[in-house]
Amino acid sequence: xxxxxxxxxxxxxxxxxxxxxxxxxxxxxxxxxxxxxxxxxxxxxxxxxxxxxxxxxxxxxxxxxxxxxxxxxxxxxxxxxxxxxxxxxxxxxxxxxxxxxxxxxxxxxxxxxxxxxxxxxxxxxxxxxxxxxxxxxxxxxxxxxxxxxxxxxxxxxxxxxxxxxxxxxxxxxxxxxxxxxxxxxxxxxxxxxxxxxxxxxxxxxxxxxxxxxxxxxxxxxxxxxxxxxxxxxxxxxxxxxxxxxxxxxxxxxxxxxxxxxxxxxxxxxxxxxxxxxxxxxxxxxxxxxxxxxxxxxxxxxxxxxxxxxxxxxxxxxxxxxxxxxxxxxxxxxxxxxxxxxxxxxxxxxxxxxxxxxxxxxx
Length: 362
Prior knowledge:
Blueprint: H1 2-19, E1 42-44, E2 46-62, E3 67-70, E4 76-81, E5 88-89, E6 94-99, H2 101-132, H3 138-164, E7 167-168, E8 173-177, E9 182-187, E10 194-195, E11 203-206, E12 210-217, E13 230-235, E14 238-250, E15 261-268, E16 279-296, E17 301-303, E18 306-312, E19 318-322, E20 327-328, E21 332-335, E22 344-346, H4 350-361
Helix pairs in contact: 2-3
């Protein structure tokens, strides 16, 4: 009986002891996460000529060959204005009306001359009749004909002036008409404006289908910028757009105020986004004969004061790689070592992906 109880107690103790024995934690393998090819945007590194770029400031200007400035030939007061700054106008369109004492004087002179011509014609008819009856001489007939011709010439001159000034005798005003089609880019008159014949211009019309980009070249950049180079035009007004042009001319004289040379870039302006007076930035690029592996500058990742890129491997895993660029251009990085041609460099969400890769390695 005693032995049986002893055996039972021993068995229970052994079972209780086994319940409290420490167990080893299972070993967890470190997994390397791979990414689906479509979830990561990459750029294949390529061998290409090394480029260097500089940025030139400037602005949009009118093409002076497509600008017409209108100056009044007579004095008067603007009675009506039919347009506003920036309006599209067509050739011959009435832009404004002006009342002038000169119109009254011309009309009065025309009426006097018409009356004198009527008398001269009657006199000529009478002299012709007398000449046929041998009462008047050749001299009398020539003088009568000459007088009528002179008066007719004076009347035609007045009509020509009225036509030149676009006079409307019915309204008693001069009509100011658009000499060409285009856009009103300057407008210096309004109803009630007194106009003198010495005014520089009442308005300016320009065809904005082509504009000039004037870029500033400082002395330190003279050896870099050359005629015929391509230029990419950007403006803060259109942050997502860029326009391409070619430097067509470079001034040979420094601007006395800004101390720069002016480079001219002719630009087509189909969408009329390039507005005269708009400040721009022109990026000019020079291509070298030396080759290197190039990638977008946006792919670069700064971490602990060092530069990295993310490389997508053939198994879709991402490798953070420390790099040192040999040449940095405007939006390109060039490497003579560290990245091989054909390697896929991550160019989208690389900062987030880089952080995820670092977390996995911890």
